[in-house]
Amino acid sequence: MPSELIIEELRPNRAEVLRYLRLPEGATPPAELMAALDAAEAELLAAAEPRFVWRRFGLNRTAAGIELSESGVLLPGRDIAGLLRDAAGCLLLAATLGVAADNLIRRAETADMGRALLLDALASAAVENLCDQVQNWLTQKFAGDMLFLTDRFSPGYGDLPLAMQRPLCQLLDAGRQIGLTVSRSDLLLPRKSVTAVIGLCPSPQPHRTDKCAACPARDNCPYRQSGGCNQ
């Protein structure tokens, strides 16, 4: 069982990148686009400084929501209650590509918006890759205790408020641990970062195959409307 995780491969899933770029599923990307993505990906991977932090909590179920034990933090909403329905505890996770990746995208936004869009899509897929690696490692870590992980669920998904970013980052000491802070509008800084709640359950849990299922923009997503996702 691994004692620590070293992120060695951050290369983003190219299919995910093309989805973020709203290329219809099954369409053949132009050679020029793939070449531009290759170049932008090399830049992003050179700039990225992947870091993560996690912490385990017990759960207290109340009428107002699920409280993270000994923290005073309440997770409100039906969606997170459903995710943690069978959970004996949960994990909080925060992960980031770091400020240099953000700066790379910002510089591109002032010089070449097309390149900036490619970098942004690549970074979004890369941070998901980072989270997948961390979650796979945590799955192995807790397998010895016969505990099984749910999908991860982030503030802003479903009815879990985006305002939960701040207390989750505070509980993880994310500013000091990985340089992750929260803006006045509850957005994560650096932008290419993720916070999430993951349930710890005594039995195996189903995992969604539709990554759009919990997205608050699902019904109005132009990419889904264009046929770019499995509906």
Overall tally of structural domains: 1
What is the name of the CATH architecture? 3-Layer(aba) Sandwich
Sheet/helix structural class: alpha+beta
Please state the CA-atom Rg, rounded to the nearest Å: 18 Å
Q: What is the class in the CATH system?
A: Alpha Beta
Q: Report the total helices.
A: 8
Helix content: 25-40%
Low-confidence stretches: 216-231
Distance between the termini: 38 Å
Mind describing the biggest β-sheet?
Answer: 6 strands, antiparallel
Spatial arrangement of strands, main beta sheet: 3-2-1-4-8-5
Order of helices and strands: HHEEEHEHHEHHEEEH
How many strands? Answer: 8
| CATH topological fold name | NADH Oxidase
Strand content of the residues, in percent? Answer: 15-25%
Q: Assign an overall shape.
A: globular
Question: Can you tell me about this structure?
Answer:
- Mean pLDDT is 89; it is low at 216-231.
- With 231 residues, the protein is an alpha+beta fold.
- Strand 2 and strand 3 form a beta hairpin.
- It has helices at residues 14-20, 31-47, 78-83, 99-111, 113-143, 165-172, 174-178, 222-225; strands at 51-62, 65-68, 73-75, 89-96, 148-153, 181-182, 188-189, 193-201.
- It has eight helices and eight strands; from the N terminus they run ααβββαβααβααβββα.
- It has one domain (14-205): NADH Oxidase (3-Layer(aba) Sandwich).
- The longest helix has 31 residues, at 113-143.
